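Need tokens for this chain, all 448 residues.
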Amino acid sequence: MPRLLPRIIQKLQTSPPSKSFEPFSISKYRFRGKSLRKPSLPPVPSFHPSDHAQSILLTPGNPITSSRDYIQHKSLPPRVIIPKNASPRRNAHDHPRTMTAEERRWWASPYLRMLSTPLRRCWQTQQLLPSAFLIRLGIFQAPPLNPQVLFSPNAPPEAVLMPDGLEHPKFRSRKSGKAGYILCWKDALEFSRSTGTFRRLTHNLRLPLIEDQIRYTLRLRVLQELQLVADALRYRPKHLAHKTLVRRLTREEWKTFRTTGTMPIKNAMAIIVLPPLNRNPETKQRPQAADLSSLPDNSPAPQNFTRPPLPLCTLHPTLDEQPLPEDIPQSTSRVPLYNAVPLFPNPDQRATLLSLLKRICLLEQRQRAAHADFGISEKLPKDDSQRSSHAFVLMSNEDITLTADMAAVGLALWRLPMFEGMGWEGKTDWVKRYKYRSMHGNEKYEIA
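Here are the structure tokens for all 448 residues:
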């Protein structure tokens, strides 16, 4: 040790000073995907003994000992926009490419995006489903309920299931390595807690009442996606300034929509009915927009109204721009209409939602006014029927995708009514039925 310390001191004095940590330098080490794509595979040799003077195992490059050389790998997925300063890929045979117009049309649909998410298995139903239909619950170590157990050497540390990975990765990354997936449905969580099927993930595990926290995180994901859309509008090219992302229905359009129940606007992805917030009867102030915090704060409780509760989400048909022949079935697409009061019961979160939607509309209005070909007036029309209503329409198509990812907003919105039970009608028996293997054999038992 006395001979080692002088050499360490000399090494520290001669070495250059270390650079300070930069918050954005971690992106250089972020895994972006490795491509194993090959343009062509080697020809497979014959397996017939007469074609080989000796064993096929002694043939160089045979498909038995060199099986990896004969595996066909997929290329990395395309991107919506490739920046000019993008770093090249390590594989020279797999060049990055942008999406075509048809691929962008698929990417702009929130429902196709949900079906294209990675497959995961639900521990309750043992079904393999896209991860957008599931809730990821991470396994975390929790402090013991009995402090005396902490000093017991035979007691294992208690684990608890908590929602993890529900927020956008740019705001909060995953904190747990091991996790389980369950249906995005509150009844599935309740039934799993009563039957104890979650204990198959690991020993000494408990599932607390986390339904309210999941609801809060799902609503927070909607606000985070809208925040990213507002940030992306600042860098929109001028030739896309006429593409509308969010627009407000006029009073005449809203009256017609309520009468017919059909959405006549093209490329409408979702409708959010968001009336202005009322003042607090005690403080005489309107709720202020809250920050996008990951933990629920001590915000005011939702107000109780004497009116009948509004539905969280309703589906409405759309008008086809080009009618199809009679022998071809007509389009059955539906546009969801969300009522913001039951969707965001917290007044502070509803105020944040209103401020984000207004900010997006204001940014689009300024960009169109700054462009010479799309100058508009900011004055309200004199006709009362042409004034803006409380209904916001979210648009999404292949051209809007070049500006911002509006399909991610629609996906985050749809997971809220899904968690409350919409779309899972008739699946109660499916959730309550699970299978397991016996300890004394391979027979399968079904429990209903």
